[in-house]
Amino acid sequence: GESVGLHLPTLSVQEGDNSIINCAYSNSASDYFIWYKQESGKGPQFIIDIRSNMDKRQGQRVTVLLNKTVKHLSLQIAATQPGDSAVYFCAENTIKAAGNKLTFGGGTRVLVKP
Amino acid sequence: EAGVAQSPRYKIIEKRQSVAFWCNPISGHATLYWYQQILGQGPKLLIQFQNNGVVDDSQLPKDRFSAERLKGVDSTLKIQPAKLEDSAVYLCASSLGGWAGAYNEQFFGPGTRLTVL
């Protein structure tokens, strides 16, 4: 069936360096792609989203890139900080008449080394 | 603004027992979701409500799981009887919803961690 997945289960990064988290998706009909951050004991927290007709979107220290040709999504975190240590999920959002449906991938753990 | 509230935060039961989880969404949010998150995996949608009606329950194991949102606000998710494989975090989320064909951000609660022994 349709799925969203991640290439790397764990990413170790030095504090201050940039992080790149990758995600492959298979449903070309998704309307939005979203990145969530999940810290231990907490629910997923929205980071940034990108509409399917866009290639790039920037937020505060984060940039999401969407390559529809190869069905690839990435999240770039600039100047990674210890507080960025968490599990990151990409998710695809499909807008239907009855509401939005969110499908998550398996997650990448980011460990920030001081 | 208060976020999505869930209780209890932790629950330990033996297999074949029953358990119930409670969720209070963000005020004014018409759409409510229950997700199951097994350790190391992304959340999986179990059921979606629009006000007090079920929109999608295609992935809910209906032989043992049930959920309701009687007054269109709070919701409960029940498992009866529980199996070992039900050990997971159960997340509740809500979104504004209320109209079809529009993008609505989902806001997640802290979840309930269920351990079935």
What does this structure look like?
The complex is a heterodimer of chains A (114) and B (117). Chain A is mainly beta and 114 residues long. Chain A has a single domain (4-113), classed as Immunoglobulins (Immunoglobulin-like, Sandwich), CATH 2.60.40.10. In chain A, 0% of the residues lie in helices and 59% in strands. Chain A is globular. Residues 1-8 of chain A have low confidence and may be disordered. With 117 residues, chain B is mainly beta. Chain B has one domain: Sandwich (Immunoglobulin-like), CATH 2.60.40. Chain B has no helices and eleven strands. In chain B, strands 2, 4, 5, 6, 9, 10 and 11 form a seven-stranded mixed beta sheet that branches. In chain B, a hairpin with a 2-residue loop joins strand 5 (44-50) and strand 6 (53-56).
Helix content of chain A: under 10%
Q: CATH superfamily name of chain B? A: Immunoglobulins
Within CATH, the superfamily of chain A carries the name Immunoglobulins
The proportion of residues forming helix of chain B, as a percent range, comes to under 10%
CATH arch. level architecture of chain A: Sandwich
**What name is given to the CATH topology of chain A?**
Immunoglobulin-like
Structural class by sheet pairing and helices of chain B: mainly beta
Number of strands of chain B: 11
Q: How many domains in all of chain A?
A: 1
For the record, give the distance between the C-alpha atoms at the N and C termini of chain A, rounded to a whole number: 40 Å
* Level-2 CATH architecture of chain B: Sandwich
**What letter string, H or E per element, gives the SSE order of chain B?**
EEEEEEEEEEE
Q: Sheet with the most strands of chain A?
A: 6 strands, mixed
Q: Please tally the helical runs of chain B, counting DSSP H or I stretches of 4 or more residues.
A: 0
Taken as a percent bin, the fraction of beta residues of chain B is over 45%
